[in-house]
Task: structure prediction
Amino acid sequence: METKVTAESARKKAELLAGGPVLLPSDFKPPFPPSRSTAGPGAGHPELVFSFGGTRAKKAISRDSGDFLLRDSGGRLSILKDGEPFIEEAELQRTLLHAPFQAFINVDSRCAYRCVFCSSHRLEPHATKNLTDDKVVEMAVNASRERGFTGVALTSGVPQSPAETTSRLVGLIERIREALPETSIGVEPYVTSPDQIDSLLEAGADEIKINIESFDRDVFEKICPDRDYDVIIHGINHACEVFGRNKVCSNIIFGLGETDETTLNGVKVLADMGAVATLRAIRVNELNRADLDRTLGETQPVTASRMLNLAREQKRILQDYGLSPLGFKTMCHACLACDIVPFWDV
Ligand code: SF4
Result:
């Protein structure tokens, strides 16, 4: 089955994603400012996207310690692991806004929900810099003028209610759609009713991400105590009906104590609806570690081989259903930086 990169590059990407930060030499100055995301697995940390062998990985960077070491030999970058050469040639990939080639904007990091794995709501309340709607639209339009720009995506915490947040996202999508009529727009909301999904589509969104987070119901209840599993499943199903097949995606996080069987069953359930899972290894950091430990007890760290195996199995399932992450124009499937992506990496 075809992939875009070699098995060796995929394995190195998995090892990078499974490991700790990349230590930068003290005198190394990145050619552009690191990404400082307020959403996604690396929220709250400076990160850089390393591209190598036709794929890329977004990694936390550190000046103090790390599992990997960046080496700069007169502008030629390589990465070492345990003091040994690991990636012979790497480049730094600029993020437009949060992701390479995309303006992926978290419009509000404040969130009333207490999802245990998520770092966004643990950030300072001003982390999203009190983005006004005018500012968000301006950021999207400015990004669209950059070389390599491919699309816009919006997400948000839920400071008050899902209905209010959706309504803000609808207004923003309408304005961005008007300003950028040809641009692909993705949206990653927490929605609680079918009409909220319809309104995002009518506003001009092309793709939607509604995260189920875990297909293990016990795990879900523990890690998302304020959200409703059945409402999310119904939302994904409805989104597939109105947005269409291969236009809907959903995070399934693994490494929370669930089995691979449960995770892959989730991939299948989603595929049966027409949605493509984003299989994401849990990222544990100082913002979420204590809460995760308290909620789930001791869990096994995710290994590179588990990441690769799950992605390969996911690929088989997607093939059976005629789906692929590579059809997406926005959000994580298009970004490639945080997960092993079926049909691209494996
Ligand atoms: S894969 Fe998703 S979460 Fe990770 S950097 Fe890209 S858009 Fe953000």
User: Anything to note?
Assistant: The mean pLDDT is 95. The two ends are 8 Å apart (CA to CA). The CA atoms of residues 32 and 94 lie 7 Å apart.
